[in-house]
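Can anyone check this?
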Amino acid sequence: MEVDVGASDPVAAVLDRISFDGPVPPLPDPAERVRLREAFGWTVTQMGRANDVRRETVWTWESDPPRTPRGEKGQRYARILAYFAAELARVGADNGFATSEPEPADEPESAPDAPAAEATPLEFDFDIEDPPELAWPDTDPAPARAEKAVPEFDEPGSWIDLPEGVTRLCFRCGRPTSSVVDGRPRHVYLQAMAAMGMPRCGTPPTTQAVSASAARAETAPTSTVAAPAPAAPAPAASAATAPAPALPVAVAPAARPSAVSRRPVTASPARGAKRVARKPAVKPVPAEYADGPLAVLGITDGALTAYLADGRTVPCPAKSLQALAAWALDKRKIRLGAARVHDNGFDQDPLIILTEGAVAHFGLPTSLADQENLRLPTDHKVLKSLTKAGWELTKAGFGPWPRIFKRLDGRRHCVQLFLTPWGALEDRVWSGAGELPAGDLARMLGAYARLVITPRGTVAVTGEELMTSLRPPTKAEWSEKEGKYVSAKVPHTLHTLVDPAPPEAPDEHPVVAADYPEEGSRPASEALDEEACIWVRPAGLITDAERACTHVVALDVQVAFLAACRRLHVGTGPAVHYPRNPDFDPALPGSWYVDLSHIETDPRLPSPFTSSGERPDGPGWYATPTVAYAVELGVDVRPMEAWVRETHSPYLQPWYETLRDAYLSVMADLGVTQDLDDEAFLAAMATYKDGDPLLVTLAGAIKATAKAGIGKLRQRPNLGVDHVFGDPWPALKRVTWRPDIRAMILSKARTNMHRKMHHLATVAGRYPLAVNNDCVVYATDGPSPLPLLYGPDGEPVRGGFRLGVNPGSVKHQGSQTIDWALDLLADGVNIANEIKDASLVRVA
């Protein structure tokens, strides 16, 4: 494919070579659309430009289920994809290059004492001598490794130069290049770029689709927790033991699915059948991280031993924290860590979990004396020794999740620690996982790291870390003016600190405290109150027919808040104020001041506009999904004021997809799959907690990551430290502190649930007795929830509840007798909060 060397626009260069005449090729399935675009090296933005649509539209074309493009744009889209397929097929046809990935050549054995991965200097110099080896303190020389780690740059001679004047479009960035690497045209990645930490133009992106043969192999079902072979041999110095017999959560790091790749789908199912998704494609882990993302340190036969995620054990020679950090980062001795989840991001640091025995081994207390600040005093002898050796701590200090780092060659090398005796793994989330044997803990946390991301603290912190890792705020961009790579902000990400609009901020925020300096003095009508619904129907509105029923049954929405993130557009920029009667636009995320108190709703249903379920008593602030739902119900809304964000995107979509796929994978291994009919699903959900306890804990941790990550968007001041009302607190310095996004999610989740309750009431005449967040209770004849899913005609209620494991579907939360329910409802007790465990309430 010869392209004008001077072509500056890769999109225009491609379009110039496509014929838009003749028969229109058929559109491939969504997974193939993603594969073709990514393999050719185009982003959704470039595809949108080529088809004269927004990038969000391209996402819908590639989603599951897809939106099929029609008309002229659909034909144009099909021709572009057909061109991609043809060009990718003939990449190796010209000039004799192979069209498939070449077999790796045998690598020469490493010389003794050669480092596995060398450091690179920082100067942008293309004539670079062999760089010096990183010298870590308190480490012993390591024997030669079995093989070299994958180099971070292209060695001279590893690429082929095309004839003079002949160029191809780089499959990675789309710009002309005269180099071909491994049979594919791309720019050469040199040592100087690696030293600067620039993204590797030309290396396969994180989201690159697997080859056609690999994709076919993925159609066979595989277990989320099966233990594949390690990606590369373990270091010779490690003397690793053979893997233990495969446990249910024996997870090797090599099987991490691409967190931002879209889920392959099967052919469209027949109407009424359940859609079944294949497991996400996986990509090999780099050799530099062959030992997995983490290690759990325990004492075995009096010696410090590292338990790896794939079941192997490795002796750890470290006797101090500084020696431990050096060992964890020394690729000659152990290869810990994980690859970045997005090309613009950073590789994941090694995680070392210290059990009680390991904590004592390093001279640390087995419990924290400072339970208020959760920090070890800076004058502790272990910390003084650590800092004396040149290692540093973050501003958070040394707590249950400390980060230790050292600056070498202009780069910061970090290790994340978890101290289980200090409560690093919250019992309410991890169900006492800190007390597990070290091997089981390593395999469970290794599975979490593979499916989600390497833990970085609490599940709330980890959920937030996943957001920014999947949507990095900056990227390296070549500056013609400066003649070097510079950091550039990525559009449609959270890359700039923005103040919340006054109604979106909590009372203690400086934006609010400036006008209402006394705590609690702000009128309720001036605050945006988008929360989940907690409501009980008054006992006087319970009908005789409902009282004649035998039971009450609760339905619980699966991961309801995560489900609300699907395709939800949220603001990515600052709020724009419209002070006088703006027209409502459902496409603009934000807050609207509107009067919804005049809207008549059935008193047997909670009001969809308030978290209490009570009818509003006047004008108030509402998030966009709430006002849009009012319009859907036929209300003529007339906002009086608005704070909206004109720059927006489905920022949380990859976050949603990653956590959804992780949850579905674990539940499938527990026997709850997407292809079960209603009866089989109810049976599987009734017994899945009797399965492997590590898997059950892992499923709960994934759900908690979603919920806590959303809560982190509106983190309040820490009440455990001195805080003056109206003063800023540390969370406000994060670009992900966005209470407006949290309000959008909760508004969407609440209206989604109300829509289903409204449809069930309209079609089947069934009304809820109580609602608690994502749980709703109905009166039925019998303990089964199945009657709640069907209308009088025996068909499923359109737009109603559906049983299933997918986020947004429902499960059976519990059943009790009608007498139990009526006694509690008479006292105003929310039975949706008690039905799962009736022993929580004593009825006289």
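Reply from J.R.: I decoded it. The chain has 22 helices and 25 strands.
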